[in-house]
Amino acid sequence: LKGEAVFQLFPSDVFGGFILIVISAVFLRGITHDEHDAFFGFGSLMLAVFGVLYILVLFANGLDAWIVGEEWNPVEDLRIEIVLLPLAIPGLIALNRARKTLPP
């Protein structure tokens, strides 16, 4: 990524920024809370949902550009939620293990 492309990773829309603030607040609250596993799992779940959502948006923009015949650069649609998506995997694994130990 060069110069201006790095700044495109940070959301310029209000709702995208609000989503990142909420996800960060969930993770940070888990640091000081006794039940930190729940906050870690829920924060990871939220991060995964929005990461997958923005991947779908990226593919939809690429498909739209292909149908119309325009030039498309996927780096322009890359968002920080997509980059952070692999960090949600350990939390999702822990959440799945905890779910299996619950009674039916």
Brief sketch in words of this structure:
This protein has 104 residues and is mainly α.
Describe this structure in words.
This protein is mainly alpha-helical and 104 residues long. The protein has one domain (8-99). It has five helices and no strands. The chain is elongated. The termini are far apart. The model has no long low-confidence stretch (mean pLDDT 86).
Would you spell out the secondary-structure blueprint of this structure?
Layout: H1 3-7, H2 14-32, H3 36-68, H4 80-84, H5 89-100
Helix pairs in contact: 2-3, 3-5
Task: Give descriptors for this structure.
elongated; 104 residues; mainly alpha; 5 helices
- Rounded Rg: 17 Å
Largest sheet: none
* C-alpha geometry: elongated
**Strand segment tally:** 0
End-to-end distance, in Å? 48 Å
What is the H/E order? HHHHH
| Coarse structural class | mainly alpha
Spans where pLDDT lies below 50 across 5 or more residues: none
